[in-house]
Amino acid sequence: MEQLFMNLERLTSVPGGGSFLHIVTENGDKIIKAEDFARDMFNFLTGGEPEAHNQIYRGGKVLTDFYSYDEIIEMVQAKDFSDIFVGDIIERDTPAISVTNFAAKAKTQYVVLGINSLNNHGDTPKLQNRPHLVMMPLDGLGSAYMNATNITTGGYKDSYMNKTVIPAVVTALESAFGAAHVLQTREYITNTVTTTVASRGGLGWQGGSTAGEWSDQKAILMTELEAYGATPFSSSAYDNIGLNQQLPGMKIDKIMNRRFNRWLRSVCYSTTFCLVDAYGNPSYGYASSVLVVCPRFSIG
Questions:
Q1: 162-to-58, 64, 278 alpha-carbon distances in Å
Q2: pLDDT tens by residue, 254-266
Q3: Spatial contact of 189 and 156, defined as CB atoms under 8 Å apart
Q4: Helix, strand, or coil here: 148?
Q5: Do 161 and 263 touch, CB atoms closer than 8 A?
Q6: Whose CA is closest to 224, among 268, 192, 193?
Q7: How far apart are CA 274 and CA 255, in angstroms?
Q8: DSSP-derived secondary structure for 158-204
Q9: Residue 15: CA count within 13 A, CB half-sphere
Q10: How many alpha carbons fall within 13 Å on the CB side of residue 133?
Q11: Strands 143-144 and 291-292, sheet pairing
Q12: % of the chain beyond a pLDDT of 70
């Protein structure tokens, strides 16, 4: 099974058969697209569970080259994930975002980070058993700082990023995907950083998150835990409450390693927030640094 589905490209280029397989059965010969055969076999072996598609990366198929956006939404709402896999791409025209200097761009690429990955997530789950795709702009939606100065006071909640940048990003996403299809989730965000406590992120570092709260969000930066499945530089446990595992798409090198620095919402210490660096490594930067904005959001 592993060999079959990790070599889909081979299956779709059978010598003499183009993208088709010629299968001899007791009931006669069958001609089937190799890609359809591989997908149907996978669904048969996994019982058709959509979450199983979180484990298969097929190179980043651009779904909007094969389906209209409305057809993709219909598939998701009908719980038909037979041709949607982690790492697949949806292209959408996206308007300009002034606070991140993002210029309006046709066919902005958004990547599937997970299928139904936020089911039952949150204190009062918004996506309880609701089919959805967790998405992220593959190359971000411009750049911005977390705060104008090097402070983490008020945690992520009181940051310029959360109060000014993300709302503008949400407006752009609602334009690109349709407001009704950008789903609201419940997220835990830090609201207090105490400068006199030791940060868990590094020896001798001062300042850590000491409180937080649940809030409604349509787009949000990832935590270190969501990005890495670990918390190497987070200041305290408060920085990673909520989603308790790495998002499936963040295990893929072509998604994790985009050759630019991007913000995470976890506090590192009193003057810095966590980030994913240009090599895909966990790191941290001063709050006033201007880095790429790559929030996650859900559609359905």
A1: 34, 30, 23
A2: 999 999 999 999 9
A3: yes
A4: coil
A5: yes
A6: 268
A7: 18
A8: TSHIIIIIHHHHHHHHHHHH-GGGEE-EEEEEEEEEEEEEEPTTSTT
A9: 0
A10: 33
A11: antiparallel
A12: 90
Q: What's the start-to-end Cα distance of the chain, in Å? A: 30
Hey, what amino acid is at 194?
A: T
Q: Is the dihedral of CA 181, 66, 97, 162 positive or negative?
A: positive
Q: For 181-214, how does the pLDDT look when each residue is reduced to its tens digit (9 = 90+)?
A: 999 999 999 999 999 999 999 889 999 999 999 9
Helix-strand-coil split of the chain, %, nearest 5: 25, 30, 40
Cite the DSSP H helix spans in 8-114. 8-11, 34-46, 69-77
Query: With 0-12 CB in 10 A as exposed, 13-18 as middle and 19+ as buried, what is 124?
Result: exposed
Question: At 86, which amino acid appears?
Answer: V
